[in-house]
Amino acid sequence: MKEHKIAVIAGDGIGPEVLAEGVKVLNRISELDRTFRFQFTNFPWGCEYYLKYGRMMADDGIEQLKAFDAIFLGAVGYPGVPDHISLWDLLLVIRKSFDQYVNLRPVKLLKGAPCPLKDVKQEDIDMLFIRENSEGEYAGSGSWLFKGKPNEVVIQDGVFSRVGCERIIRYAFEVARAQKKTLSSISKGNALNYSMVFWDQIFKEISEEYPDVETHSYLVDAASMFMVKDPKRFQIVVTSNLFGDILTDLGAAISGGMGLAAGANLNPERKYPSMFEPIHGSAPDIAGQGTANPLAAIWSASQMLEFFGHKEWADRLIAIIEEILSEKRVLTPDLGGTATTQQVGNEVVRKLSRS
């Protein structure tokens, strides 16, 4: 029996609540399949850990995580801990240390999911964002000069390397080719005259290696407009770290809300563990109430299953999520229902067991 070793970092706010349902679902799938199983190890890292020990994770945290096949992350961030601390001292440390340079975020309007856009059919919103996940404006490079003085200056560098741009763009072309879909590059080459001109140049260079893939290029402001006015024009999308972060939240807004937003941080070479997470944040305002939507965590569990080669189970999970959304019997308050977090997770398990 194949064993997948998973590090569970439930994190902050609603993170432990939604992740518990994801773990429950994965365990049930392994019971039904019987050719693989999961070994989960919990780590108490996050903002509560920071308030107690002065750091977001153990000093040797990265060394501990190296032993695992994947990381299942709940949420990071809580009042009392500055956002840049919670982000840079846990989430981004993991992404960078394990070279998780591919961020995959599906923007797909599932059957039964609410959509705020008028006259948009379900099949019109079906995108996969491939976001560069290791550099750009999130590289952590810059300066803070004359701090606290009237002439204070801050400089935030956007770091774009040829290696970084080439590998994410080539990854996107490979996905577009395999899925026989169009590939859209999103940049801002008219205003960012170094970084984005460089990105556009590399996209054009690599496109010549893939003459069978239909390509399009958009400025980020135009792309954000078209995502609302004409979302069906986007299929596979490749973009930079910052633009990808912003546009995928817009994508979540038009495809059911943050409670249905999942993300994967991949090291495609599998030299290091990859990380899977719902992207809705810690939502401290509803933490502990048992009303958080676990479907994004369950969707990210589906991404983990696909990464491990269990695509049939991954697809079955998505079909069950669509069934739950369509039936509208067991939904959390954000989707207009009255169910608890656990009740939604139990419903997924019940449907898995039935099928």
TrEMBL record:
It comes from the Bacteria. Residues 5-348 form the Isopropylmalate dehydrogenase-like domain. One of its GO terms (molecular function) is NAD binding. Its EC number is 1.1.1.83. It catalyses: (R)-malate + NAD(+) = pyruvate + CO2 + NADH. Its cofactor is Mg(2+); Mn(2+). Pfam families: Iso_dh. Keywords: Manganese, Metal-binding, NAD, Oxidoreductase. Gene3D superfamilies: Isopropylmalate Dehydrogenase (3.40.718.10). PANTHER family: D-MALATE DEHYDROGENASE [DECARBOXYLATING] (PTHR43275:SF1). Belongs to the isocitrate and isopropylmalate dehydrogenases family. This is D-malate dehydrogenase (decarboxylating).
